[in-house]
Design goal:
about 240 residues, alpha/beta, about 30% helix
Length: about 240
């Protein structure tokens, strides 16, 4: 056990999918995994392990933001032997071309500012995913017919910000497609531990058009992202 995870040694697979929402973790496990078992309930951060196409895969919720995310990612990597982490999260679109429910594959992540998510030193440069995982994601998305966008994503520590307008001007000028609250931390901590990382994000609102997804759709919003993540995960070696 760790301070935040009650699972025992061997309860997690080497490949772990990381949604922020515990309800999404439970839905993914029950929908896609064979014989899923709950391995963590501590603090309501649900974690599951089961089989996908006969390969052990785990799904662990991480909460919202860099601080919460890093606790779970660190413990999975440092104590439970995880070697591949794939985020299955949500994001806000920074381009009018990104429709709701569309999928973003983060090719690199840029923090909102130099103070954002300080760990292992300042995030002074963009960070990125494992090249092999990224290539597999692009190929699998095309193979499965999943509409997607791939490129730079921004990352922030603050959801409700007093300067909502013009806040991401620099990121958009650099071509950022979307913004979330965890991806730069994912890429940095996996680089620190020598592990592999990839971030897949579903657009649930668009900061340019003001559109928002209807949450009455429930977790079905995340079907394409979840299916793609599992197909990537099952081939990870």
């Amino acid at each position: 056990m760790t301070p935040h995870i009650e699972a025992g040694k061997g309860d997690y697979a080497e490949t772990v999918l990381l949604p922020g929402d515990p309800q999404r973790a439970e839905w993914m496990a029950q929908t896609f995994l064979e014989a899923p078992r709950c391995v963590n309930r501590r603090r309501g951060a649900l974690g599951f392990t089961g089989l996908y196409r006969n390969r052990p895969i785990s799904i662990q919720s991480t909460g919202i933001g860099v601080s919460s995310f890093l606790i779970y990612a660190h413990e999975l990597l440092d104590y439970y032997g995880a070697r591949t982490l794939i985020r299955t999260g949500t994001c806000g679109g920074l381009s009018p071309e990104l429709g709701l429910r569309s999928l973003v594959i983060s090719q690199s992540a840029r923090p909102e500012n130099t103070e954002s998510g300080q760990v292992f030193g300042l995030y002074g440069a963009d960070t990125g995913p494992d090249p092999a995982l990224l290539a597999r994601a692009l190929a699998k998305a095309a193979e499965l017919g999943v509409q997607h966008h791939a490129g730079l994503t921004a990352c922030t520590d603050i959801f409700y910000h007093p300067e909502a307008r013009g806040r991401y001007g620099e990121a958009k000028a650099l071509g950022a497609l979307a913004v979330d609250m965890e991806t730069s931390a994912l890429y940095r901590i996996c680089a620190h531990f020598g592990a592999r990382a990839l971030s897949l994000l579903t657009v649930v609102d668009n900061l340019i058009t003001g559109e928002q997804a209807d949450y009455s759709e429930g977790q079905a919003l995340f079907t394409d992202m979840s299916r793609l993540a599992l197909e990537i995960a099952v081939e990870a070696r």
